[in-house]
Amino acid sequence: MDTHKSAGIRTRYAPSPTGLQHIGGVRTALFNYLFARSAGGAFILRLEDTDRSRSDPAFTQNLYDTFNWLGIRWDEGPDTGGPRGPYIQSGRFSLYRQYAHDLAGQGGAYYCFCGNERLEALRKAQEAAAREGGALQSGYDRRCRDLPLNEAKRRAAGGDPYTIRLKIPLQDPEGAALFTQYTDRLLGTITWKNEDINPDPVLLKSDGFPTYHLANVVDDHLMGISHVLRAQEWLPSTPLHTILYRAFGWDPPEFCHLPMVMGQDGKKLSKRHGAASVDAFRRQGYLPEALINYVALLGASYEEGKDIYTLQELTEHFSLEKLNKAPAVFDYKRLEWYNGQYLRRKTGAELAALALPFGEGLFKDSPPGPEETAAFIAAMPLIKERINLLAEIPEKIGYLFTEPPLPPPAEFFPKKSDLAQTLRLLRIGRDLVRPLATAAEDEAESLVKERAAQAGVKLGDLLMPLRVAVTGARISPPLFGSLRILGPDRALARVDRALAALSGAG
Length: 506
Known about the structure:
4 domains, Rossmann fold, Glutamyl-tRNA Synthetase, domain 3, mainly alpha
């Protein structure tokens, strides 16, 4: 039996592989990881795949891919040779069955022989009573709760279908209502009336599969989990889990229910707010370090006046005492800002390697040839300060690889200029193309300033028609760098095309 008696901090992330990893789940995983690392403890990954109808290997693979991309590593698993996988509940069903039967034998649970037909009839009767003005009652009516254990075991051995239900204690020996109390590290002391807890929930289903509650509690105990950090949506389950721990005679872990992650409309973050799955953020060109940095700040504080943290720095500063009770608001613009900061820290070669998969549609060949690859790498310094997402890159530099559409004549006109003046400026610009395409940056600046002074025009006015002719837009990455990447011949061909179009416009 895989019990762990470590006295240190042991946390876990225990997702159900029934969907893609989303921001809320990643925040939970990250906080558990940071807390364990900050205390020199262990971080455990466990797949809670007891819902066999909804579990999918694709979602399991998505979990692994997400962790690998983010750089979050778990510490142990059942495998001892080679890379360790996570704990997987579907391989531990016999263990849960043993504990369920043991608990029934001890009186903390009981065998229930109420089939689906009776339970459905009970539900309909409760709904009908409520419609007629009676008190609203829901859930199991505890019909089998007081069956003698010997009789229950005899029926089970004889083949009668059964479940095993947790026996929620309702009254003390004097008949007073019982309450379950526990201390949450963030929310303080929480008390629930036992009558308000799900009435005697099923621990072991009729097919022999465990429910989430049984598998979760047994595994957390056997794996020595010291702290359970999870979303506040699990608050209603915590009294039930506390009762289950005590029924087994085990000490519960410390609970900490993390602040919710909300959209800016005050509702729980979901697809309606935009990207919610990590895959969606990856497709848009977010970097893992930016996502980690931002998500780590959702509901937690670290150092005053500091925004940028490496994963190592986050582990050094994370503390449960610095968690916020208030919901965290997910701000997509703020995340974009973080991503931009990390993009700007990359070298040109690093940025190109990250951006290349997003720019595949720019190239004639796949994979791109040496010239296209060199041009792509050379373009990175031109746009580094202008992008927040890798997915923005093709739009920013597409003109370097494909001739852009010719804009309407008015797009070429500097402010307060007419067609004749614009043609004059573009012809001056044409004469500058070859020297600008071969000159260093400071030499190019001096050259155009001198030519603008000679022509008696502002520097921006002189360059505007040339910029539009070369890039296809009034706003573009730096013109001089663009000319160097395009080369004088390609740039001159675009200027001549623009001159012909403008001349015909008159």
